[in-house]
Specification:
- With about 450 residues, the chain is α+β, with helices and mostly antiparallel strands.
- The chain contains 7 helices and 26 strands.
- It is globular, with a radius of gyration of 37 Å.
- The two termini are about 45 Å apart.
- It has 3 domains: about 90 residues, Roll (Nuclear Transport Factor 2, Chain: A), CATH 3.10.450.350; about 140 residues, Nuclear Transport Factor 2, Chain: A (Roll); about 120 residues, Glucose Permease (Domain IIA) (Distorted Sandwich), CATH 2.70.70.10.
- Helix 3 packs across helix 4.
- Keywords: Signal.
Amino acid sequence: MKLRHIVLGTTMAAAAVSTIASRALILEAPPEYIFSEAPEALDSPPEPLDGPGVNASGETMPNMLPAAFQPPEFPALERAEPDNLMALVQALATPPWEATVEAGDTLDVLLSLADMDAQTRTEVALALTVEYDLRRLRPGHRLSVDFRPDGTPSVVTLAVDDGVRIEVTLDDTIASRTVTPSALTVERASQLLVNGSIYASLDRAGVPARFAVDLAQILGETVDFRRDLQGGETLNILWGQTVLRDGSEVGQPSISYAALDLADDRFEILWSAEDSGRATVYLNGEILRTVAPPVEGARLSSVFGQRKHPIYGNMRMHTGVDYAAAAGTPIAATAPGRVSFIGWRSGYGRVVEIAHGSDTMTRYAHLSAVPEGLAVGNRVVAGETIGQVGETGTATAPNLHYEVRVDGRPIDPLGEELLASAENFDTADATEILEETRTRFATFLREDT
């Protein structure tokens, strides 16, 4: 573990304070028993010194001083005010202790390295838990402890994601609070040529490469990115990024529009402005289909297909898609059907399964809770809440594992017509929104170039 633990010894502090105290004594009036007498007159003046001089006369005798002589200049000493002295004492107190969380670290171990006793560590952990789920502590988070002049801890700060800090004040009573930095969302636009993979092309252009996953998932059933991309295709991207006051970026970028020119066709994807996760796919300006995830506003964190398992580390088939979202976020049925199973399934954790006809089933896994009254046999409609996001079973963080199975065989959920239909969609409204988005993209592209 890489820790920066700076301890300032008390010897230097004592010496510095002693020096200031000495300086203060110099300026005091001399004690009463110290006195001086006027010099006695000499019987005869001293012999004049060689060379030109300056005549200095006094009441008793003249005197000749060499012109080169100058009285020594002593530095002016100021009386040390009590407030300044206290400021120095505080400055020489124990500096803040800081550490970066690394794999395998626990809060208790880190606080013990800050010389915090067991009872105080327990109280700090309880106070932090009020504001933050400590199970989400992960590498990269930062922990710091501020100290009083007497060396006792005064404030413990845990800096987590997106610039958010959890502060615990150690006083007569222990209090905690969450500090969220002020931020704003800026829109950015980029136009690039695809050469090689979409991922590499985005990365070279300085566009978040993770957008390649969004494009592949939504266009995967329509475009074969291995065979259809010949090189030189134009790709337009419009996205939003949350930025703090100091200009640093926090959170994940959010894509809102993409356009891919492929041969004689133009595929455009428009994501909902309400952050519902719904996306509409256009082909040459006409609606091709819409995609609506089971969790509104969630981020697609893992795709369908072979992947390296995040816990076991080996290559395994991922039979669904994962949506990262906060624990407790509502989960909706993606299509009408009948509840066929509620319960636990090994690594899936708490699960709800819905049958759609005789051959299709959707599975919602890692749930933290199921609505009271939901039971096997109940009929549900599309959009009806059937659970809440959790991390039960084999999961590294709160998320929804979502599957679609046809005749028992898992298929890509985003490629299934059951979940991607343009029925009952207002075509005129969708066309108007697309035109407005194209204009907005062109405006931001000019500003960014």
